[in-house]
Structures are given as structure tokens and as C-alpha cells.
Specification:
358 residues, six-stranded antiparallel beta sheet, alpha+beta, single chain
């Protein structure tokens, strides 16, 4: 790399990290002012506020703003270079516009890889600590309000509960159905089932079992029975934010389990999985748009270019939200809904790139 490349990389990364740290500091100030009464009322230790909450609050919000501030950083320092005629001077020495993009994409690669690693392996455990803090001091105990819970716990084996109490780990109006070749062969019904933490099993109370065969119809009654089901109390205590606490491999296993259980909102989990890849990839697209838009000296100066950058950034966020809602509602595959904004903005990037040298 030449001095020019190092100069641009330094400007890119320096502007990006400075602006990101600034917005995180502002977010922490606003969040602290909102939650200060809760902290005082519940006498939360200062060290927990700092090290358990805000130390894990910062990386989570950094992940949310990464792609936005990649765009803003590129536009900001490139516009300043253009206004000082530095871009004209560089191109007049025989450097092509394509060659000018080289240090930009080196910087974008660093940020994309950093974002990919943080999103999949660093931020999830940090988010788990932050959510535990919020549940303890801010939101309180989680109560499962789902009704008529149906889950497949293994191939051909289904359970049903009318409702589940997360405080006492009791499920009411419980049943297990076993199918073979799509035919019901056994059904257990009970008033309630309770988790026994000492044995690590479920205790079924006041049950009866109907075994259905081709020529045999057998009914068995009992007061209580222990059964080992491949489902646990924490499966009923999961909020949608639970997926944010799982690293990439844990998230894949979690999604497979939810598909087996027949969970309704699997698309929301798949969206989270694909976002962790799509957002880092958007770094390259937004960098290309940012350089192409801001490399020309314009009458409005840096302010006009930043305004254009903000407009494109927020339109990207809006489009991402709209497309993911179509997926959550079941009309669009999750991978398509997450990648559509990148594909459309890639076309926009290639279009403005063709115009930029002119």
C-alpha cells in the first residue's frame, strides 16, 4: 500500500470510530436519564450499572449503528477531501477512480469482519448479561402468557398444555400424543405436569394413558408418573430477545429445535440469523455509494452530502423493516426479506459508481 492508501484508511477508520463512540456516549446518557429512577428506587449497585449493564449496552448499540456510521463516516471525510480539491488532485496524477476505491474497501473489509465476529460471538454473551440485569432490576420476572401450547418434542411425539406457569414450572391440562405412520397409537392426559429439579424430569399428576392398537384398546390410570421429555422449563421462559444471546452455532441449534417443536415465530429467529450476515455485507455496498456520492465537489458542500447520506441510510433501515415484516407475516422467506435491501442498494451503488468518474 502507498501513503495515499494509508491516509484514506486512517481517515475512514478514525472518523468511523470517533462518530460511533460519540453516538454511543449520547445513547448512554439518554438511557441513564430514562432509567435513573429505577436504579435509585431498587438501589442498584453502581458497579453493576457500569460493568454489567453499560459495558454490555455499548457493544449491542454499536452493532445497531455500525452500517449507518460506515456510510456517514465515508461521506463526511470524502466530502471534506473533495471540497479541499484533494480528490481532483489524486485523480489528476493518473490514479483511476477504481484504484481510489482500494483503501476504502480495505477499511470496509476490516469493519465487515469485525462486525461479523462481534455480532455472532462477542455481542450475544454480552447481551445475555445485559438482559439478565434488565430482568432483575427493570422489567421484572417473565410470565409466560401463551395459551394452548402445542410442541413436537421428537418425531411423531407431540405435547399440549392449556397454559404454563413459569414461576412454579407447572403446565395445566397436559397431554402427550404419539403417532406412528401418521396414526395415533398412544395418548397420555393429565390435569397438570410439574418440573422436578431434583430428578431433572417432569412429574405427571392424575394421569391416564390410552394405548390404541389394531385390535387392542388399553387404558391405564395412575396418581403420578415421572417422564423424561426433551423439553425444559427454560423453553417456556424464552422471549423473542433470547435469540440475541445465542452465538451463531447456538442459534442454529436453537432454530432446529424450534422447527421440531413447531414454534410459530421461527421466521423471526431466521431473520436474526440472516441479519448477522447481511448487515456486515452491507458495509461494502454503503461504502461504494458513499464514495461515489461524495467524491465530487458540490455547491452545498459537506452538509448536502451528509444530508443525502442520512436520507439513503434511513431509507435502507426503513426498507429492511418493511421487508422483514413481510417475512414475519409468512408471505416472504426470511433470507429473501433480509437480503432484498442489499440487492436493491447494490444496484443503486453500481449505478452511482458508473456516474461518479464522469
Amino acid at each position: 500500500m502507498k501513503k495515499l492508501d494509508l491516509y484514506i484508511i486512517k481517515k475512514f477508520l478514525g472518523t468511523f470510530f470517533f462518530s460511533l463512540l460519540l453516538i454511543i456516549a449520547i445513547a448512554i446518557i439518554f438511557d441513564l436519564s430514562e432509567k435513573l429512577d429505577d436504579f435509585i428506587e431498587k438501589q442498584v449497585p453502581v458497579n453493576e450499572i457500569i460493568f454489567k449493564y453499560y459495558m454490555n449496552f455499548a457493544p449491542y448499540y454499536a452493532k445497531l449503528f455500525v452500517f449507518l456510521f460506515v456510510f456517514i463516516a465515508v461521506i463526511f471525510f470524502t466530502s471534506k477531501m473533495a471540497n479541499r480539491s484533494e480528490i481532483i488532485a489524486i485523480l489528476s496524477t493518473g490514479v483511476s477512480f477504481r484504484r481510489l476505491l482500494f483503501p476504502y474497501f480495505i477499511s470496509a473489509t476490516v469493519l465487515a469482519l469485525l462486525s461479523l465476529y462481534l455480532s455472532n460471538f462477542v455481542i450475544p454473551p454480552a447481551t445475555a448479561i445485559r438482559l439478565d440485569f434488565e430482568n432483575k432490576y427493570i422489567k421484572g420476572t417473565y410470565y409466560n402468557q401463551d395459551r394452548n401450547i402445542h410442541k413436537q418434542i421428537s418425531p411423531g411425539v407431540f405435547i399440549y398444555m392449556e397454559n404454563y406457569n413459569t414461576t412454579s414450572d407447572i403446565g395445566y391440562k397436559f397431554s402427550i400424543e404419539k403417532f406412528e405412520n401418521k396414526k395415533l397409537v398412544s395418548k397420555l392426559m393429565s390435569d397438570l405436569v410439574q418440573w422436578d429439579s431434583t430428578t431433572g424430569k417432569w412429574r405427571v399428576q392424575k394421569y391416564y394413558i390410552r394405548n390404541l392398537g389394531d385390535s387392542i384398546h388399553e387404558i391405564t390410570y395412575g396418581k403420578s408418573i415421572d417422564t423424561a421429555l426433551t423439553i425444559y422449563p427454560e423453553d417456556f421462559e424464552q422471549r423473542l430477545t433470547t435469540v440475541e444471546t445465542l452465538n451463531y452455532f447456538e442459534l442454529n441449534d436453537f432454530i432446529d429445535a424450534q422447527i421440531l417443536h413447531g414454534t410459530e415465530n421461527v421466521n423471526a429467529y431466521l431473520i436474526e440469523k440472516h441479519r448477522r450476515i447481511a448487515f456486515p455485507f452491507s458495509t461494502f455496498i454503503l461504502t461504494l455509494i458513499g464514495v461515489s456520492v461524495s467524491s465530487r465537489k458540490v455547491r452545498g458542500g459537506t452538509g448536502l452530502n451528509i444530508g443525502i447520506g442520512l436520507l439513503l441510510s434511513f431509507s435502507y433501515i426503513l426498507f429492511m423493516q418493511i421487508s422483514t415484516q413481510f417475512s414475519i407475516n409468512g408471505s416472504l422467506p426470511p433470507i429473501v426479506s433480509v437480503w432484498i435491501p442489499n440487492m436493491i442498494y447494490l444496484i443503486v451503488a453500481l449505478f452511482v459508481y458508473r456516474l461518479a468518474p464522469k
